[in-house]
Amino acid sequence: MSTFPVPAGVVRTPVRLGGRPAVQVDPAERARPGTLLYFHGGSFSLGSPETAMALTAHLVLRTGVRAVSLDYRLAPEHPFPAGIEDCLAAYRGLLDSGLAPESIILAGDSAGGGLAITSLLAARNAGLPMPAGIVAFSPGLDHTRSGASVTTKNGVDPLFTGEGLKRTGDLYLNGRDPARDPLLAPAVLADLSGFPPILLQVGTNELLLDDSVRLAARAREAGVDVILDVVADVPHVFPAFVGTIDEADQALDRAALFITQRIGAAV
Question: What is the pTM of this model?
Fold first, then answer.
């Protein structure tokens, strides 16, 4: 993902948030109200704000809303729950800076999409107010790997194998049992009561497909607004392929509409 070209029209500034490095991405033109708190992907063990910068910048350009992309700690040096702690601290930092929660959207891709969900579970459990919404691209939401798609899409998914998911998952788990912790398997265990609206975007060929499908069902059961956007025959985190596949541009347009509607409803 770091090889995808970052579009013109944004300004990147190194900042710190919640005690961690981050990159603030502003539209070169005047920004509209709101903040995207973005978490990059990388199987909880790879990546940085720069690897997701193209996707982050395209969201900023389409919405006119600034983003802050967090450089959270990674496994194996910093296994669960370090990344969640960093993401929670970042959200708390935005609130402490005076931002209204209803002006904030949590967003992320792959592992970062999972962190958008789990850090908000931690925030709710800590009594923090909920943000305006969540956008998750191909999120990883189940370290038990019990979704049917982990088996049925093995060999079909162009990026992941079941063995690869287990290898990086073990680095993150560091011996923890995911079947006992909603923060490790929210698609299976989480109570999403009180959550803001969620947009999930995922492809039919992904090992992680059923992570999103099952989380959407749990959101529905909890009375949470949820949009499950399943697109045929596209790769993992397909919205990152802007300008390469039509489905990416179309998906980002839908995500931008969700973001602007959610933030606009609170302004």
Answer: 0.97
In one-letter notation, the amino acid at residue 100 is A
Please give the Cα distance from 140 to 30 (Å, whole number): 34
Going by the DSSP 8-state scheme, the letter that residue 103 receives in this structure is: G
Q: Are 75 and 44 in contact (CB under 8 A)?
A: yes
**Tokens read off for 156:** 């079909």
Cα angle value 70/92/103 (rounded, 5°): 85
**DSSP SS3 for 243:** coil
User: Two tokens at 6?
Assistant: 């970052």
Mean pLDDT for each 10-residue chunk of the chain (267 residues)? 87 98 96 96 96 97 98 98 98 98 98 98 98 98 96 92 93 95 98 98 97 98 98 96 95 98 78
DSSP class of residue 159 equals: S
Three-class DSSP category at 140: coil
Is there a contact between 103 and 72 (Cβ–Cβ < 8 Å)?
no
Residue 162 DSSP SS3: helix
Q: Which two tokens stand for residue 114?
A: 């999972």
Could you tell me the domains of the chain? 10-264 (3.40.50.1820)
186, 200 in Cβ contact below 8 A?
no
Q: Are 143 and 207 in contact, with CB atoms under 8 Å apart?
A: no
- Reading the block at residue 186, the tokens are 């929210």
- The radius of gyration computed from the CA coordinates of the chain, to the nearest angstrom, equals 17
Q: Which residues, in sequence order, are CB contacts of 177 under 8 Å at separation 6+?
A: none
Catalytic positions are 110, 206, 236
Paired with 201 in beta bridges are: 137, 229
